[in-house]
Amino acid sequence: IKFILSEKQYLYIPQQVKKIGELHSVLQSHHSAIVVGPTCSGKSVIINVLTTIDGEVDDYSRRVIISPKAFPKEELYGVKCSVTNEWVDGYLTSGLKYVNKNPSINNKYFLIFDGQMDPSWIGDITSLLDDKKMVTLPNSETIYLNENVAIIFETGSIEHLSPDILSRIGIVHVASSDLPYRTYWTKFLLQRKDADMLSQFYEKYIQHVIDVTCDASSSELIERSLTFFIPQCTLNMLIQFCELISSLIPPPKYYSDESSVEYEEIS
């Protein structure tokens, strides 16, 4: 895990590594798992690292990622063409067939669903999640899941799922506190030659702004606590700030000698 984190230029965060271990343990006893937690809590990193174990760091051929809420049900499961009268597979069925093509136990494959778990689409694959590990398509075709295939759901909530579905799947909960927002700033500075200057800038201004806008315990610093018109987590705000910095003040390696004075003035 440490090697994969390093190769993918992720920081080593003990709590996040613990969650990767939890997901690995869950998939030893289940062929499907849910990674649930708020936005910007590190769910994607946990899944990315876990699905890379026992494979090449840059090998993405053993995983298929689908956002089920982005497509109507017909495009997920497939539809019969009214012109040719032939069956056309959907994104979900095509993904299933892809990860199912290699039955070798030495090659682990993953089907990853990224997005809200809604009964409107997940209800049709419940038989895929239990011991039967099979699904019957509208054209009567049956697909059986190979032993080397695991299904992972990445979602922010499981409130719409029935106990019947939850009893079939292993669950790993990720809290926002598992990924401290300051770690993103640390990773951002690793890509900058002006890290020392930006660190001073952060301590002098940014940390104070974060305390005032995002930390409820700091509300006594102002007359009333601030509220967001659109809810934002602290990490998401910091990511946006880093993107803004990268646009307004590109890393020094992009500057010519003639523009060094101008860069100092901007800083």
TrEMBL record:
InterPro entries hit by this protein: ATPase_dyneun-rel_AAA, DHC, P-loop_NTPase
Listed GO MF terms: ATP binding; ATP hydrolysis activity; dynein intermediate chain binding; dynein light intermediate chain binding; minus-end-directed microtubule motor activity
Domain ATPase dynein-related AAA: 34-168
GO CC list: 9+2 motile cilium; dynein complex
Domain of life, per lineage: Eukaryota
Gene3D superfamilies, A to Z: P-loop containing nucleotide triphosphate hydrolases (3.40.50.300)
Record GO biological process: cilium movement involved in cell motility
Annotated protein name in UniProt: Putative dynein heavy chain 10 axonemal isoform x2
Organism expressing this protein natively: Panstrongylus lignarius
